[in-house]
């Protein structure tokens, strides 16, 4: 499963990329707002840090204006995936862009039927939001299982990008279900590293090593 990091914070992206944990990046208008930086400038910087797909979202809601924004966004770098909402205009934009060879991430997916439409529109990625589903009392992971089954039934190439990941259990479940990609905030990716038995084991090993009085090299 590929790991994307869901942030526009370039310091976090650099740190995780140095550890080999970043296959791509997703941003959205809320994350750009949080970063407090110019949209095109920060996306360009991110696209220079990672070689994998960097999702940058258009904010227009009608097709013509989406296409105009997409033209600007896709010129930032070769690894940009234009992010469009799962609406009729978004799907139309998706079809046009992917026909031209541009990567597209269809976002705000909340049903298996919507995911089916994204695949039919040729999406590179579809982003089902599991955390927001959990928030309203529907198990988000059931959606991932449904989409996996449907995509496998028809051999769709669209990659399932599990989004709105809020905790390590989401990552574990997404991997078991065979999701292609998950995108999580830096804090969740860091949580994956931590285990109390790793910390305890390391403390014990270092204490015993100290007792040997040795040094390496
Ligand atoms: C994905 O592309 C979205 O940016 C993100 O995962 C949304 O997460 P949230 O529901 O925690 O805001």
Which structural traits does this protein have?
217 residues, alpha/beta, TIM Barrel, 8-stranded parallel beta barrel, globular, binds erythose-4-phosphate
Walk me through the structure.
This protein has 217 residues and is an alpha/beta fold. It has eleven helices and eight strands. It is 53% helix and 17% strand. The mean pLDDT is 98. The chain is globular. The structure holds erythose-4-phosphate (E4P). Erythose-4-phosphate binds at residues 6, 26, 28, 107, 127, 129, 131-132, 163-164, 183.
CATH architecture: Alpha-Beta Barrel
Bulk shape:
globular
CATH fold-level topology: TIM Barrel
Radius of gyration: 20 Å
Helix/strand order:
EHEHHEHEHEHEHHEHEHH
CATH class designation? Alpha Beta
What's this model, at a glance?
The chain is an alpha/beta fold and 217 residues long. It has 11 helices and 8 strands.
List the helices and strands and how they pair.
Elements: E1 2-6, H1 10-18, E2 24-26, H2 29-35, H3 39-49, E3 54-57, H4 63-74, E4 80-85, H5 88-99, E5 103-109, H6 112-120, E6 125-128, H7 130-135, H8 140-154, E7 159-162, H9 168-176, E8 181-184, H10 186-193, H11 196-212
Parallel strand pairs: 1-2, 1-8, 2-3, 3-4, 4-5, 5-6, 6-7, 7-8
Helix pairs in contact: 1-3, 4-5, 6-8
Erythose-4-phosphate (E4P) is lined by residues 6, 26, 28, 107, 127, 129, 131-132, 163-164, 183.
């Amino acid at each position: 499963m590929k790991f994307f990091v869901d942030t526009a914070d370039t310091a976090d992206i650099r740190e995780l990329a140095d550890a080999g944990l970043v296959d791509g990046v997703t941003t959205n208008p809320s994350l750009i707002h949080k970063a407090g930086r110019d949209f095109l400038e920060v996306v360009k910087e991110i696209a220079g840090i990672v070689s994998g797909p960097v999702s940058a979202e258009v904010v227009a809601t009608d097709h013509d204006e989406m296409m105009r924004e997409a033209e600007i966004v896709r010129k930032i770098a070769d690894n940009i995936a234009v992010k469009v909402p799962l609406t009729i205009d978004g799907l139309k934009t998706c079809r046009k862009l992917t026909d031209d060879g541009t990567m597209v991430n269809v976002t705000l997916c909340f049903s298996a039927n919507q995911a089916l439409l994204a695949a039919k529109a040729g999406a590179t990625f579809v982003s089902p939001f599991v955390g927001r589903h959990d928030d309203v009392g529907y198990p988000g992971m059931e959606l991932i299982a449904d989409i996996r089954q449907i995509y496998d039934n028809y051999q769709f190439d669209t990659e399932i990008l599990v989004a709105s990941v809020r905790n390590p259990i989401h990552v574990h479940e997404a991997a078991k279900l065979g999701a292609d990609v998950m995108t999580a905030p830096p804090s969740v990716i860091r949580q994956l590293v931590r285990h109390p038995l790793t910390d305890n084991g390391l403390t014990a090993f270092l204490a015993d090593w100290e007792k040997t009085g040795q040094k390496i090299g």
